[in-house]
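Z., the sequence and structure:
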Amino acid sequence: MTDLVRGAYRRFLLIGLVLPLVVAVIAVALQLWWLPSLPDPAAIHWSGSGPDGFAPPWTYPVLTAALAIGLPLLLAGIAHAAARAGEWGPNLRFLGAVSLGTSLGLSLALTWSVAMQRGLTDAADAPGVGIPLLAALGLGLVAGVIGWFAQPGVSRSNGTAASGQAAPIVLAEGERAVWLRTTTMSRGGMAALLAGVLALAGAVFVTALAGPDRRLPWILAGALVVFLLAVLSTTVFRVRVDEQGLTVRSGLGVPRFRVPLGDVATAEVSHVQALAEFGGIGIRSVPGRRFGVVLRSGDALRVHRVDGREFVVTVDDATTGAALLTALAARERAAVPGTT
């Protein structure tokens, strides 16, 4: 871990972990202190006509701890993994800001909801939550912006020995060449998606057997179908380099991304750290005109387009793909008068 990455990580811990935890612990302590003065059950959900959802008062401190404490811990774990690998980038800086803003907003909204029910005998008489929610949203946005600017703008990647602009493959005049590879999502990503599918399927089964609302199983089933299609279309991609340029196509056929040869400025192999550079895995877009099909950390084919944008795809044997793309793009430019 370099000094720059270490400094950025320490600032992340202050902004995205320590401050949210301090505020959340204070919020939970206040809620526990006020529990004896709350109606039982307490209001936990509001509609336009007033409270319409109720639960035991202890629901509030449990919910606050789970969300306002759990989220910073989760995001800090992501940042720790990236920092240990010597990686850092704007997405981790963004996660620190999100952690601060979200945790502070949730702590305020939930604690205010508890405070305004103190002394009531019936939770149905609780006032509306419009003002608390607006205040929480405002606090969260302001805290998030401050959290962003309070962290240094560090971008670092360890890289690999194979990183760098690829030397073009030598092609004879009129010779045709094609490079094909398949890239799949990492095991960790697959496991997370599978867990999501099983959780949704379980929810459909449980609500179909015992749910009070017969519409809910159908809504969840529709969500399950959409989620399954999203999983199937984003976990496996076919990567092709030929006379048309670079084509990255989902195993289902869609989505499909293409960089024409005339749009290729340079092609290179680079080491991608998915969390640090892109904030995770999948089809990713980040500030700075960078877009990628990032299914894991590791070697990637990185294309610099003529308009300054970048397209990245993580794939095995990226060196050969970049070399062929470089050669085909050079031949394309040579065939057009006035280009180099």
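The chain is about 50% helix and 20% strand. Helices lie at 3-34, 59-84, 90-115, 130-149, 187-210, 215-234, 274-278, 318-334.

Let me know what you think.
H.
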